[in-house]
């Protein structure tokens, strides 16, 4: 934005109600405090980070502001006077690296939507004062114990996205971790009992994810969208009671037939993304009257050993899009490939991603043939079929080559482990040398 254009804007600043800038602002020309009638302010500089804390120093003077979006890596702090923006309804910081939210945030009694970037942020206890808040996402608090304690006060929340903490990564002591788990479970369960409609949780390596989800699903009848990652060890207990659920993204260690039937019985599901970290041990059958309203189904399995999936008559009668992802590599307990999708009456698009890493060429071709046989030649609706191979360059030609490949792979892994052990030993020796040097120079 040239200085001439900015000067023209400044000359008419009293008439401007919305200001959206995607460029660096000249520090000499741009005076934010003069836009006293501004309702909408968007400052974006995602690529270069030229926008900084100096440009928003007088943000608190824009008392009529209703929408504020700050998207710049150079913006790391909010001014304390942000609490003067009594008319602010949306605060979007998702593109900035804000390190600390000032306590004055609690004065924003009309704030409805608060979006944070997912970076570690310090939230004051005053966050619990935002009683008008409907959206809070995606939060990663660096003061987790206090934050989840205040979270329970936000009973009007409809949308929540949160990243959880774990004791090993965030160095919470045993006592604080216990307090955190108890407070987190209590707060999220309470919000779910009210009118929370959308919940997205990133567990990281949180140690009690299954127990937490069991508690949340015990009474969350208003929940319409649930996304949780990474995988749980199993489906949450009473997930079938989520009678309003329309959008589900979930992963488990190994999906079982009975769990698939439980999900299929949720009457309102329109979209499901289901991940099985290990390949299912048996054939998965989607029976009649399951997933009655489902429009899109994404099924991914990360394990090896084949995949057998059969859809019976009247199963998923409204399904239009089906995305399937699996590994073609065989295992000792291999069950091969079997697919039967010809009864999916409304199917319009079938997209298949095959991961070829370590699989023989004949194995990949067999998987593709099984898919084509259930669609191109049998399915009456002739749905669009897309098959894509991934890591095709790591595919092997035959079993003999695979054995050689596995032997080389095992050797490489062992060499890598040996190198890591040698590196750790070197670091330990260096630390001992430094300690000896310190003791010799500064004897006790």
Automatic annotation (TrEMBL):
From the record, what ranges are coiled-coil? Answer: none
**Any idea where the Disease resistance R13L4/SHOC-2-like LRR domain is?**
15-385
Q: InterPro entries from the entry?
A: LRR_dom_sf, LRR_R13L4/SHOC2-like
Region listing for Disordered, in residue ranges: 419-444
Q: Which UniProt keywords apply?
A: Repeat
TM helices/strands, residue ranges: none
**Which superkingdom, per the lineage?**
Eukaryota
PANTHER family assigned to the protein according to its UniProt record, in alphabetical order: LEUCINE-RICH REPEAT-CONTAINING PROTEIN 57 (PTHR47186), OS11G0589401 PROTEIN (PTHR47186:SF22)
Q: What is this protein called?
A: Disease resistance R13L4/SHOC-2-like LRR domain-containing protein
